[in-house]
Amino acid sequence: MRVCLFEDDQVAHLLPLVHTRAVYDLRLAMRTLLETTRAAFGGGEPLLHARRRVAAVTAQENDALVNRLPEGLDVLFVNGRFIAEEGDLLDRLRRAATDGEPPRVFFQGDDLIAAWAPAAAAHLIEGEALTRATFDGFEEEQVEGARLIGRLWHLLDELPRALHRDWAARTHGFNIYERPGADVQNGALLVHEE
């Protein structure tokens, strides 16, 4: 199973930040949305879908296949605006992306969250944006709990939670206050007056 991050028809709400990069290349705390999704699904090499305008720079920055899908791969398509964090929804997507599971598309309201396409056809990523019509004929499942970056201020709203998540992932539970020689002061100290 391979993961393919895609851009949907809602990325324009994130201009000007997505004017020069794909939506999943936006940074949220210490990692980009792409890095967060890769970690959530096992860190394998992802496939990427990007608007034509940013496809070349996306391919160069991520050293990945962009807008090309090898025929016949089992692919879990994940919305590039989705914040992939541990929880019931992520568990559901992982279970859906297993051998023997039928093709399925996941929505939260009208937002396309993900789609499971066993033996995916290469034409699925030909469009400028992946939408409900891209996965026409797939069984639909409504889910809840998905957090998407839909507007610029969502990056700020999600920042505290993302910083805690990324710090915990980066430090593996290390407490900086327990470091030998660490002396945390209540205020500023003047060390050298000059």
Can you walk me through this structure?
- The chain has 194 residues and is α/β, with parallel strands linked by helices.
- It has four helices and eight strands, in the order βββαβαβαβββα.
- The protein has helices spanning 33-40, 52-62, 88-96, 152-171, and strands at 2-6, 27-28, 31-32, 47-48, 75-79, 104-108, 111-117, 139-142.
- The protein has a six-stranded mixed sheet with strand order 4-1-5-7-6-8, with helices on one face. Strands 2-3 form a two-stranded antiparallel sheet.
- A hairpin with a 2-residue loop joins strand 2 and strand 3 (31-32).
- The longest helix has 20 residues, at 152-171.
- The chain starts with a strand and ends in a 23-residue tail after the last helix.
- The model has no long low-confidence stretch (mean pLDDT 92).
Q: What's this model, at a glance?
A:
The chain has 194 residues and is α/β, with parallel strands linked by helices.
Give the total of beta strands.
Answer: 8
Q: Strand pairing plus helix content: what structural class?
A: alpha/beta
- The number of helices is 4
Mean pLDDT: 92
Helix content: 10-25%
The run of helices and strands is EEEHEHEHEEEH
Shape: elongated
Give the strand line-up of the largest sheet.
4-1-5-7-6-8
Q: Tell me about the largest β-sheet.
A: 6 strands, mixed
**What is the radius of gyration?**
19 Å
What share of the residues does DSSP label as strand, in percent? 15-25%
First-to-last CA distance:
61 Å
Instruction: Catalogue the unreliable spans.
Output: none
